[in-house]
Amino acid sequence: MGKNYIDIENDHGETLRYRKHANGRGLIAHGAKVHPSAIVEAGAYVEPGVQIAAGAHVGRGVWVESDAVIGPDADIAPHAHIGPGAAIGAGAKIGVRTQVGRDARVAVGSLIGDDETIADGERVATDRRGLRLAA
């Protein structure tokens, strides 16, 4: 039986231990909290301090940086990048290869398309079609 964790050295020379999430085999850093019903697919990295709520789905190759929050039933498509301290609201959908900046906020139920960039600190809300709403 193989080990259920992997050690990776970060940019500061520190070794971080990641465990494989039971639901999808994505890598979860020590200090991150992922609900057991959430799916974190293989190839995804979840950094320390992250919180992922019940029913959330984190796709293959996604990088969720430290202290980000992923709300209940949110869907993060493959190869997206969620910046440090960002918050994704309940039921929001983030498209393939989309970049969400540091401390950005995506409102509950928002639909963010593929290959989009949300700037650091930006607050975004959309309707069900993905059209941005006035702040």
TrEMBL record:
Top-level taxon: Bacteria
InterPro entries in the cross-refs: Hexapep, Lipid_A_LpxA, Trimer_LpxA-like_sf
GO molecular function (one): transferase activity
Chain segments annotated as coiled-coil in the UniProt record: none
Stored Pfam families: Hexapep
Keyword list, A-Z: Transferase
Protein name (Swiss-Prot/TrEMBL): Transferase
Species whose genome carries this gene: Microbacterium alkaliflavum
